[in-house]
Design brief:
This protein is mainly α. Among the domains are: about 210 residues; about 90 residues, no CATH class. The protein is about 70% helix and about 0% strand. The protein contains 22 helices and no strands. Helix 4 crosses helix 22 and helix 8 packs across helix 10. Keywords: TPR repeat.
Length: about 500
């Protein structure tokens, strides 16, 4: 399938007249729509002169965001990213001070360790290593920070430094098999550590599969999922990981073969001894993060658009916007303002997103797109009066728009829904807002399906690859149906 999706990527790019070509370690190409409906990435690709943005943004990053949002909605678990992560970081010192005053040193240590991992997820690896190093120095008997620091060093391509962190650590299992080490591997992968997609895929696969299979098979006959469905999911994961790693000369299957053998579904795994799976909400977080790490490092071979990368893209967008305004390029400025507002929403800076769209509406009064996106943004914030006002403005401005133009507006809206979900919108991924959940599932599922449809377009696709892609689409539909079938239909939002 890997050869096929690369061919499909080039074919889709040719059909769309798109200058983008997959880089090494690139997998699926997100291009299911004509140029006018290709979303925010299409706005950038349509202008090859935007060299920085064209190099910083990738279709794989948008696809990773869509799968993350879809998984979060299905699990009813909001990712600890964007505004959610910053909110926790703001209150963490008070929480730790209260725990210290109560003499609960263990909670203080665990809290500081977790906050360091959030630094890694955000892509601030040096901050993470600094904080883990301080914690290890203050509490040398607490091995967690050393294990986590070693994992981060490994994924940054510093194995010698990682080895030094592990000196003197003994136990019943190798340090790199420890659950704390593997959790840090996942965190560093989500933060975009370079070696995760260029040399450490085996380690990422091993860590991610451990969390996924522990959740899947720790209690085989419990939960809503049948054993048959668990077997099918496990078989699909096994096949995918085996094929990806066997074709990669820089990794071996030795580190993941044990999990692949034990996860065939032929026997029920014993209950997990790991305490992280004793709490249902905590296990959902680990499974969601592990799935994203596996998709990023092993399947797509592309880093996610999180933390430091978002800030880097934002800086480049601001530079290009200033140049467009100086040159009087109104069309480019309009598109860049939309991208800048999307990035603000993705980073959890919702006030900045609102200001960005409002500025776009003022500077480009005949453009219906800012009004359409403000309608959605205010809906997510439960400001229905404002939402209705902007929707009325959109309908007025878009009255003469073609079906193709309206389709392009829908893609922009779907990408904003994904950004709001991952940015930490208060109403996202909660059963108390069923309308919002439906919006997320529909938008994220549409973006994921767009990638699968793009891959299926190649008429020369081998039959086996075509069947696998159709199986993935069937699984996608099952996930989407499962995510919304129990919602009662009350509350939420309505967007056209």
């Amino acid at each position: 399938m890997d050869r096929f999706v690369r061919r499909a990527a080039l074919a889709a790019a040719t059909v769309l007249g798109n200058p983008y070509r997959p880089r090494p370690f690139t997998g699926v190409f997100l291009a299911s729509s004509p140029p006018s409906a290709s979303g925010h990435l299409g706005l950038v690709r349509a202008r090859p002169a935007l060299l920085d943005l064209n190099s910083l943004l990738s279709p794989e990053a948008f696809l990773l965001d869509a799968t993350h949002a879809l998984g979060a909605a299905a699990l009813r678990h909001q990712p600890m990213l964007g505004g959610m992560a910053r909110g926790l970081q703001n209150i963490a010192p008070k929480m730790q001070a209260a725990a210290a005053a109560a003499g609960d040193i263990e909670s203080v240590q665990a809290g500081r360790h977790y906050m360091a991992l959030l630094d890694a997820v955000d892509g601030r690896f040096e901050d993470a290593l600094h904080n883990l190093g301080r914690l290890a120095e203050e509490r040398p008997y607490f091995l967690g920070p050393r294990l986590a620091a070693a994992a981060i060093c490994d994924l940054l391509g510093r194995p010698d430094q990682g080895d030094r962190w592990l000196i003197g650590i003994t136990g019943d299992e190798p340090p790199r098999d420890n659950v704390v080490f593997r959790n840090a591997v996942v965190a560093a992968t989500l933060g975009g550590a370079a070696d995760a997609v260029a040399g450490s895929q085996g380690a990422v696969a091993s860590a991610a599969l451990m969390f996924i299979y522990e959740k899947l098979w720790g209690a085989a006959f419990d939960g809503d999922m049948s054993v048959v469905k668990k077997v099918l999911i496990t078989t699909l994961l096994n096949r995918l990981v085996k094929r990806k790693l066997r074709e990669d000369a820089v990794v071996t299957l030795q580190s993941v073969s044990k999990l692949l053998r034990s996860g065939t579904g032929s026997s029920v795994a014993p209950p997990s001894p790991s305490p992280i799976f004793n709490d249902a909400e905590g296990s959902e977080q680990f499974v969601l993060q592990a799935s994203q790490a596996l998709l990023s490092a092993v399947v797509l071979r592309a880093p996610p658009l999180t933390g430091e990368r978002i800030r880097g893209v934002t800086r480049a967008t601001k530079r290009d916007l200033a140049r467009a305004v100086q040159k009087g390029d109104t069309a480019a400025a309009a598109d860049l303002r939309l991208l800048l507002a999307l990035l603000a929403a993705r980073d959890g800076r919702f006030d900045a997103a609102v200001e960005g769209y409002q500025e776009a509406a003022r500077e480009h009064p005949s453009d219906p797109r800012p009004s359409y996106l403000l309608h959605l943004l205010y809906s997510f914030g439960e400001c229905m009066e404002e939402s209705d006002k902007w929707n009325a403005r959109y309908e007025r401005l878009a009255a003469g728009s073609s079906d193709e133009d309206r389709a392009s507006h829908v893609v922009l809206k779907e990408e904003l829904v994904v950004a709001l979900t991952l940015g930490g919108a208060r109403t996202a991924c909660r059963e108390s807002f069923p309308g919002v959940l439906r919006e997320i599932v529909g938008a994220a599922g549409s973006r994921v399906d767009a990638a699968l449809v793009s891959a299926l377009r190649d008429e020369n696709t081998p039959v086996v690859d075509r069947l696998e892609l159709r199986a993935l689409r069937a699984f996608l539909y099952a996930v989407m149906w499962s995510a919304v079938k129990d919602l009662d239909g009350s509350g939420g939002i309505t967007t056209n």
